[in-house]
Give the backbone structure.
Amino acid sequence: MKKGQRLMRVGLLGLAIVVLLAGCSGTEMPQSVATNSGPAASETDEVPVVSQADDVVIAGAVIEPAHWSELYFNTVGQVTEVLVAPGDQIAAGAVLLRLDTGELELSLQSAQQDIIVQKAALAQLINGVSEAVVARAAKGNAQQAAQAEIALQVNQLQLEKARAEDPTADAAAAQANIEQLQLQLAQARARDPTPDVTAAQVELTRAQIALEDAQIEYNEALDRPWEPQEVRDGYAKALRQAELNYELAQSQLESALDAQEAHGISLKVLMAQIDEAKDQLAQAIAAQETYTVTLNILAAEVEAANLELEALQTWENPYLDEASDEEVAQAEAHLRQAELAAARLELQMQDAELRAPFAGTVVDVHVETGDRVSPGGVVVVLATLNQLWARTTDLTELSVARVAVGQRAMVSVDALPGREFAGVVREIALQARDYRGDVVYDVTIELTDPESAEALRWGMTALAKIETR
């Protein structure tokens, strides 16, 4: 069988397989059954219609702890101790986490020393001062002026160093790198080897046709034994040349395909390099913005240090004059400020410990030792998992009018078919909310069944039957 005929048969077989698969694709598959999942269901789902007896109100519900809270710190800090893990039973007031208080302790010691200084200053204003005190004040001012001068020099050096680290050049270099890579990408795309592949495919087809023709002529020559041997040898030589030409065309096509694949890889590498260069440019621009802010801060610090030095250099010893009522009042105010600063630091020390507001179970811990926390960021979830309630999710305004605090209820959950848990209505929401287009009220049912805490889990979908008689 000739090669062209074999290719035709393979093509017909492939077409038959495609038609068969297309016919199979029309078969309908069984669809999953939609179920009502309570509050987690889509807002577009229809609200299930539940029959209500005259003495029973039925509503969907969700299982929740009687009390739960997302706990967080009111201050910024680094976690040094994590004293609980999920599942721990915690007493009210127990310490859950601690933050690093090293800086606060130093600040508190400084504030307490400031209180001592302010008290001494106030006592001196009231009782008067000696020459030793006057001399000591002058010496202290001179020392402060010397320290302020050193601080000014340090701030000036920091400002000069920051100015020398201008990241503008990095941003320009990153931009130039992007442009260079984009130019290389454009040049690479202009060298598309696809035409070479097409030409090689055409040349291979021609070589194949020539090979088939040479084979036919050689076969026919074999059927003519009366022809001279040199004629048949000529056909054999032509067939061999056609085979060599076909092999050469195959090799050229493979080379063209390899070049096309390498070209594609080169394009991908260049595009990845461009993306990386863009990231570097974004980082350089961000560093440039930070650099500007840093310069402004350092310049402000230099100005503040300069003003402080000028103030110390023009200082006049206040102990040379008798204290006025205003000076005494000012000293008292300074003392009060120092006391308030110390009190504030003590409160911050207390805030560095996170304590349980009530007894319960640690549900989740979101931080580890060494993590930094910020005010309001949830770090621990605490709940009374031994006291579970059921909160209705779809009790309409038509049904809530029949519900009252103290009514008995039975709660069942999808996860435990055939089991019911006793409860009592403890709370009815004062304000309605929208649930899939209906006006509904949340009713909270305390689960009094002693087995509820062991059997149920927070978030389970439930059904509440409230006895209204």
Remarks:
- Residues 70-100+352-382 form a domain with the OB fold (Dihydrolipoamide Acetyltransferase, E2P) fold (CATH 2.40.50.100).
- The radius of gyration is 43 Å.
- DSSP finds nine helices and 16 strands in the chain.
- The first helix runs from residue 3 to 24.
